[in-house]
């Protein structure tokens, strides 16, 4: 069993990692071969169609690493689901759109396959994310 040196969490565009910043400036300080990382990441994510995905990089003592791909973030999934490009800059004041409970329910069942939580907990996460970004429901 290898001993873990660092754990890093990133949000990257699938299939488009380059050694330039932000990837190079974040991972370069940990001694990772940037070209090798970008090649591995781009090969792993070449068929993913999302905007941004989260990933974890586990770096071991001998400077080897593992890439663990996550899912799309909840806020980006809400944007895709509702066809919104930006959220409100003033969430308590400016309302972007009004959605109904059926849309929230559909999104929560879609998200249920990625999360290891109850449907009611996923709905609460979705509602909290929506309200904090200026979306309101009926």
Which helices and strands occur, and which strands form pairs?
Elements: E1 4-12, H1 23-27, H2 34-44, E2 53-60, E3 65-69, H3 74-82, E4 98-99, H4 101-112, H5 119-132, E5 136-137
Parallel strand pairs: 4-5
Antiparallel strand pairs: 1-2, 2-3
Helix pairs in contact: 4-5
Question: How would you describe what is shown here?
Answer:
- There is one protein chain.
- By secondary structure, this protein is an alpha+beta fold.
- It is built from 5 helices and 5 strands, in the order βααββαβααβ.
- The chain has 2 domains: 66 residues, Ribosomal protein L11/L12, N-terminal domain (Ribosomal protein L11, N-terminal domain); 64 residues, Ribosomal protein L11/L12, C-terminal domain (Arc Repressor Mutant, subunit A), CATH 1.10.10.
- The strands form 2 sheets. Strands 1-2-3 form a 3-stranded antiparallel β-sheet, with no helix packed on it.
- Strand 2 and strand 3 form a beta hairpin.
- Helix 4 packs across helix 5.
Task: Provide keyphrases for this structure.
three-stranded antiparallel β-sheet; 2 domains; Ribosomal protein L11, N-terminal domain; 5 helices; 138 residues; two-stranded parallel ribbon; Arc Repressor Mutant, subunit A; alpha+beta
Low-confidence blocks of residues: none
Q: Report the CATH C-level class of the largest domain.
A: Alpha Beta
Strand order of the largest sheet: 1-2-3
Mean pLDDT score, rounded?
Answer: 79
What is the count of DSSP helices, taking H or I runs of 4+ residues? 5
Shape: elongated
| Helicity range | 25-40%
Domain tally:
2
| Relative strand content | 15-25%
Distance between the termini: 52 Å
Largest sheet: 3 strands, antiparallel
Return the CATH architecture of the largest domain.
Answer: 2-Layer Sandwich
Structural class: alpha+beta
CATH superfamily caption of the largest domain = Ribosomal protein L11/L12, N-terminal domain
What is the fold-level CATH name, i.e. the topology of the largest domain?
Ribosomal protein L11, N-terminal domain
How many individual β-strands? Answer: 5
Radius of gyration, whole Å? 18 Å
């Amino acid at each position: 069993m290898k001993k873990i040196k660092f754990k890093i969490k990133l949000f990257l565009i699938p299939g488009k990692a380059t050694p330039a910043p932000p990837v190079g400036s974040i991972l370069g300080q940990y001694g990772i071969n940037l070209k090798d990382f970008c090649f591995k990441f781009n090969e792993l994510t070449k068929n993913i169609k999302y905007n941004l995905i989260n990933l974890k990089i586990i770096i071991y003592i001998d400077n080897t690493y593992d890439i663990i791909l996550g899912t799309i973030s909840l806020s980006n999934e809400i944007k895709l689901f509702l066809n919104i490009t930006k959220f409100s800059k003033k969430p308590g004041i400016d309302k972007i759109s009004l959605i109904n409970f059926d849309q929230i329910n559909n999104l929560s069942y879609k998200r249920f396959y990625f999360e290891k939580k109850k449907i009611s907990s996923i709905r609460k996460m979705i509602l909290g994310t929506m309200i904090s970004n200026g979306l309101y429901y009926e």
